Amino acid sequence: MAKTVPMIITNNNILVKAKDSDDFKTFTMPSLNPSPNIPFYHEFAEKIAEGQYYFKEFMKGIYGKKLNKYILAIIVPDDTSKLESIFINEFFVNSGACKAVAQMPMALALSKEEIKYISVSKSLRNVTLEYVRDNETVVKRHYDIHTCDAKKVMADAEVLHIDIEYNDVPIFVNNFNMNMDEYLEMGEIITTKQFLEKISHIDVEKL
Hints:
The chain has 207 residues and is α/β, with parallel strands linked by helices.
């Protein structure tokens, strides 16, 4: 049976769970020249074969040569576009470093207990406000990080969906990248350590 390997695409690198512990190892593509406000993995498109080779060698160093028995559970930033999601899946599934891939935005990994909740997070490009219900995104709203106002985001969170207007729905502030200072008062803070703990034993059946 295929085993799940949790993996996170952060704002500037890739974290892959170690084989025999809950630690995460960092993969950084050599010779990248990322541009401001553009996810670093866009650079992979210019060096696809090279990037896939380096990632496969990286995975061999952690999981050995028999990589075709693993499924990568890829956790991506909440503002990842559909086109970016396709590229991410294709890049890793064709790298030879796994049997298959599954993908999920960070917001869906914030709580295993709550049926309904709001997530607020920040990437290199956007602040993302998201209403999650039954492990699915119901409403998602993006705000440009250069122009958005924290007070507006907080106000919008109260009326993001009719469920929220009439029910007490918890808010989770995803501070994984430690960049949410303006939003810490919105709700329960999810730290880097807490987020890693939440996904360290994730299974593809839950994606």
